[in-house]
Amino acid sequence: MSKTSLARLTNDYCPQTLFLYGTYDDEGKADFGLFCWFSYVWNGELGVMACIGGNKLTKENIHKRKVFSANLVTEELLPLADYLGNTAGHSPEKERLKIDTEEGRVLPVPVLTASPVSYELEVMQFVPLHDGEVMICKIHNILQDDMLTEKAVGPAEKLAAIAPVHTTCTTYFSWKGESLGAWGEPMAKI
Ligand SMILES: Cc1cc2nc3c(=O)[nH]c(=O)nc-3n(C[C@H](O)[C@H](O)[C@H](O)COP(=O)(O)O)c2cc1C
Predict the structure, then answer these.
(1) Which of 78, 91, 115, 148 is least enclosed, having the fewest CB within 10 Å?
(2) For ligand 1, is residue 35 a contact (CB within 6 Å)?
(3) Model's pTM, two decimal places?
(4) Tens digit of pLDDT for each residue in 58-71?
């Protein structure tokens, strides 16, 4: 295979899964932001690592309470997720949005009702960077749609049913690999 060295840093062609992080602000109001710098760690048990760049409401809320939820983004959720990823939590516009949420079963975090997989996370370690921060998290609970816990149905069928969204090249992709639009486009539907 012949390869080209790139002139800029990018993760193009390395698809990522998307999550909506749910936090509570000082008034107990739920805020959701869209995130893709999310992966897993091993520390005697499965954990999560998440990176937040710059300053945003999600980061402020996590610093105050040390807990948040991470809710898997599906094709059905994409217009809302895109909106939440392109609208700052501090803007009055975002505050007016009505989102169906429920309380975490183990931690005091807002969980997105329409997401089929939600993690309830506690930050065990903050790793500050120059203009970002990595958070190493303990998973206190994983909520899955009942359909995903069915033994008789295989993972391929379940994944096709929930259809998680992938992103790379500043574009969203369906579970089957079709383009669902550039960042900032799907939100036009809400
Ligand atoms: C597709 C997509 C992925 C994003 N991933 C991240 C991420 O991993 N880390 C980050 O700091 N911001 C990320 N953002 C930006 C946040 O979603 C954005 O700053 C949002 O306003 C955060 O919500 P908040 O202002 O309510 O905290 C992403 C935005 C988009 C559109």
Answers:
(1) 91
(2) yes
(3) 0.98
(4) 999 999 999 999 99
Q: Whose CA is nearest to atom 4 of ligand 1?
A: 35
Average pLDDT, the chain: 97
Atom of ligand 1 nearest to the CA of 90: 25
Return d(Cα 115, Cα 104) in angstroms, integer.
Answer: 13
Q: How far is CA 98 from CA 29, 31, 32, in A?
A: 11, 11, 11
Residues belonging to the chain: 190
Specify the CATH number for 16-189; select among 3.40.50.2300, 2.60.40.1120, 2.30.110.10, 3.30.200.40: 2.30.110.10
Q: Position 177: which residue type?
A: G
